[in-house]
Amino acid sequence: MKYVDEFRDGALARGIAARIAAEVRPDRRYSFMEFCGGHTHAISRYGIAELLPTEVRMIHGPGCPVCVLPIGRIDQAIGIALDQGAIVCTYGDTMRVPASDSLSLMKAKARGADIRMVYSAADALKIARENPAREVVFFAIGFETTTPPTALVIQQAAKEDLKNFSVLCCHVLTPSAITHILESAEVRQYGTVPIDGFVGPAHVSIVIGSGPYEHFAEEYRKPVVIAGFEPLDVMQAILMLVRQVNEGRAEVENQFARAVTREGNLAAQRAVSDVFELRERFEWRGLGEVPYSALKIRAAYAAFDAERRFELHYKAVPDHKQCECGAILRGVKKPTDCKLFGTVCTPENPMGSCMVSSEGACAAHYSYGRFRDVKVTVEAV
Ligand code: SF4
Q1: Is the CB of 252 under 6 A from ligand 1?
Q2: Which atom of ligand 1 is nearest to the CA of 333?
Q3: Among 293, 319, 345, where does a domain finish?
Q4: Using one digit for the tens of pLDDT, what is the confidence trace for 17-40?
Q5: Which of 39, 200, 297, 372 could lock onto 34 through a cystine, CB 3.0 to 4.6 A?
């Protein structure tokens, strides 16, 4: 396929892998965190980790929207549908995330709740127009990529003066999560997660630009390379990070120059800041409460805020006792460190959020067999 195959070229991948191998210093280790689940998926799917020399280690980050959604928020959405009789609309992956009492949105639907999978925020708005006698709630999740469409449907609902539409806003922010990881005890004091640099997400950066990452490079002396999601994008980003580390640089570099600018998408940013403001704190699965890491709906659009409309109060709920998602999302553990991985917990029967979405670290490892003892050499690929 044009504009896709070029970024999956095996010969080029082997060439970049050979360059990385030639440039790493045998006397040091390189640990890079790929923040985004899209990169985790690409690394597993295309066997990128196996192409890298042993000196380079990739650490999975918390950038999978479904994985970081805490149980308490899913409970709220289920409660709105089951107890308040509203139609709750959300993206497909969110439907299967385990919630309290062995429920999920999917299981609540089987119990009679009117929960509908949608492909876009605009679909939820359409359902609200078609059902004027019912309350329709869009359960909005995701990072900066999915926030602008939510802002636009709220603006549109206000324009149309829709009385039955609201949004349960669980949008979260990438830069705050990276700061939280850099400030964590594991990274700062104990050194259990030695991070030498970050692979930054392309799609988020198309919206926010590369500017917000400059803080990490300057303040924490950590290089950031914003990269696309095709295998060659990721390989090239790793090579760029290796070079920064070798040269003692800590800069923001943009591998995804085909779409990311320093400023980002200003129209999208304007829509988001018109509708949303920062939450003082928000609980992330795995990271706990992270200050100023999520958005809430501004008072001017209060009529479309499901939290106000249904008088919701957040209650934190602990994860399954044996689930290691929290440690995996902080980069402290690997999926294979979890006793439930691949036995009790599989993509068909997920016990934790990291096994639900294809972007989750556990699902990516399981789906592409990266947990098996397979050693692939550069020559063999
Ligand atoms: S394998 Fe399942 S239970 Fe274990 S950490 Fe991953 S999602 Fe949680």
Answers
A1: no
A2: 5
A3: 319
A4: 999 999 999 999 999 999 999 999
A5: 39
Can you count the helices (H) and strands (E) in the chain? Answer: 16, 13
Residue 44 C-alpha to ligand 1 middle, in angstroms? 16
Q: Does pLDDT of 4 surpass 90?
A: no
Range of the domain at 344: 325-372
pTM: 0.91
CATH number, domain of 127, equals 3.40.50.11740
Select from 327, 372, 366 the least CA-distant residue to 41. Answer: 366
Pocket mutation for ligand 1, best pick of 68, 104, 328 (most atoms within 8 Å of C-beta): 328
CB-based contact 206:355 (threshold 8 Å): no
- Claim to verify: residue 132 and residue 162 sit in the same structural domain: yes
- Counting ligand 1 atoms within 8 A of each CB, the residue from 60, 324, 333 with the most, and so the one to mutate, is 324
| Closest CA to ligand 1's atom 1 | 341
Examine residue 150 and state whether it is found in any structural domain, yes or no.
Answer: yes
Pairs from 346-351 (Cβ < 8 Å, separation ≥ 24): 350/96, 350/97, 350/98, 351/98, 351/320, 351/322, 351/323
Distance 115 CA to ligand 1 centre (A): 25
Find the mean pLDDT for residues 293-316. 97
Do 336 and 315 share a structural domain? no
pLDDT score of 180 more than 90: no
Same domain assignment for residues 7 and 111? yes
CB of residue 95 inside a 6 A radius of ligand 1: no
